[in-house]
Design a protein that fits this description.
By secondary structure, this protein is α+β, with helices and mostly antiparallel strands. The protein is 15% helix and 36% strand. It is built from six helices and 23 strands. Strands 1, 7, 9, 11, 12, 13 and 14 form a seven-stranded antiparallel sheet that branches. A seven-stranded antiparallel sheet has the order 2-3-4-5-6-10-8, with helices on one face. The longest helix is centred in the last third of the chain and has 18 residues, at 397-414. The radius of gyration is 28 Å and the shape is elongated.
Length: 429
């Protein structure tokens, strides 16, 4: 897709989802599998390759020549955004990687992160003639389902739903989509939603709420199942509906991390992001270890670290083993203000707590106001760095403590990293 059209599509999705609070969507309990129309039983084989189809009822006011009503809700590449009243001006900067415009239109697992997901379906309502090839009438649109698991505390989350009608022939007065969700496992969902659309470029939105009543120190795997009923409407009646189903991402809810229960998508690895601009020598220490201690796990995607839940006393013993035990105690460097031993891998990991005598000691240095791994000075054990299990960096005490508490500790809570779970350490500018 051309770049400008892609940007237009991204902005269209963002505006649609932002407008949910002001849009009306009718909520109704569904009479699944029933219809008010008096369909005539037919032995003709249903059309193939057009989704699910039903014979047009005898005597209905369906368009002349219509023999079949067919329905599709299928995944696929995003179409260019329709000329919509809410479509804003183009924007050239890249979208937030967890925003609707970044995730909607992609297929699993690219349509989700650890804490956000978006499901998009292409919608097609079509009348075919008796030959199952001639299109008598057509309507097309989109269904967007977007959710941020981290948006609320506790193991509750909400999906924002948008249904659009992007095109329609004049012989189709209106179309209808009913969305029902079932949350399997220890989970429940709110009432189904029904959207009726009759005008091109029309869109309606609403929300579906979920709750997983997982208890303290417990966890539960849940999964959403989506059930869509699509209808073609003619004056005075609804043609027999057809259904389509799919499953959403598997979600893990737990009461084991932080003060509240919460949920994540566990197929995506948790990450701890440490910025050089904020944590200076601490970030360089971790980055240097990832670049040079290449045999063992140092928090890269291919060789992640594994969180180890510890008491504060257990963490202190792990740090002491790496930094303060003889015969190779950490020796402060006079060139580093308030110097401290910053050990990596972190003490609260399965890979941490190695004897300091095995570690490579390094001195990160700022050159020309720039912190970079190329300016690191190796002080000890540089000859065995590839096989070393740990590194000890000379880091100011503030940066050492802040990187551990504001990034690693915060990520354990926000990404809900459980005991023994893998995570990646990402060094950012």
């Amino acid at each position: 897709m051309p770049l400008r059209r892609l940007h237009r599509h991204h902005e269209h999705i963002r505006r649609l989802l932002a407008a949910i609070a002001s849009l009306a969507l009718t909520a109704a309990l569904l009479a699944l599998g029933t219809s008010s129309a008096s369909a005539r039983t037919t032995t003709r084989p249903a059309p193939q390759g057009h989704g699910t189809c039903t014979a047009a009822p005898s005597g209905s006011e369906a368009p002349k020549g219509a023999a079949w009503a067919c329905y599709e809700a299928k995944p696929g590449a995003s179409a260019p955004a329709p000329a919509h009243a809410l479509a804003p001006a183009l924007r050239d900067d890249p979208p937030d990687p967890e925003s609707p415009e970044a995730l909607c239109g992609k297929q699993p697992p690219e349509n989700s992160t650890r804490l956000v997901y978006c499901i998009e379906r292409e919608l097609r309502w079509t009348y075919y003639g008796p030959d199952q090839k001639e299109v008598i009438g057509f309507a097309g649109g989109r269904l967007y389902i977007y959710s941020k698991l981290k948006a609320v505390q506790h193991s509750n989350w909400q999906e924002s739903v948008i249904v659009t009608l992007d095109s329609k022939t004049d012989n189709i007065p209106a179309v209808e989509l009913a969305l029902q969700t079932i949350c399997t496992g220890q989970c429940s969902a709110s009432a189904p939603l029904v959207a009726k659309l009759s005008k091109v470029d029309e869109h309606v939105g609403g929300t579906i709420d979920y709750n997983s009543p997982v208890g303290p120190d417990a966890e539960a795997l849940v999964q959403i199942q989506y059930h869509v009923i699509m209808n073609l409407q003619v004056p005075g009646e609804v043609l027999p509906p057809k259904n389509t189903d799919w499953v959403g991402p598997q979600i893990r809810c737990d009461g084991k991390t932080g003060q509240w229960t919460g949920c994540v998508i566990p197929e995506h690895m948790a990450n701890v992001t440490v910025r050089r601009s904020l944590y200076r020598a601490a970030a360089i220490t971790y980055e240097w270890a990832q670049n040079n201690l290449t045999t063992l796990s140092m928090g890269t995607k291919s060789k992640p670290l594994h969180y180890k839940k510890m008491t504060e006393e257990e963490k202190k013993r792990s740090r002491d083993l790496t930094c303060n035990r003889a015969p190779d105690r950490f020796v402060k460097d006079p060139s580093v203000p308030d110097d401290s031993c910053d050990e990596f891998p972190f003490a609260a990991t399965q890979e941490g707590g190695k004897a300091g005598t095995l570690c490579v000691d390094i001195l990160p240095q700022q050159v020309g106001d720039v912190w970079d791994v190329s300016n690191v000075k190796v002080l000890r054990n540089g000859n065995v760095k590839a096989n070393a299990p740990c590194v000890r960096g000379h880091v100011t005490n503030k940066d050492n403590v802040d990187a551990g508490s504001k990034e690693f500790g915060a990520a354990v809570r926000s990404d809900r990293i459980l005991d023994g779970e893998a995570f990646q350490v990402i060094i950012a500018p």
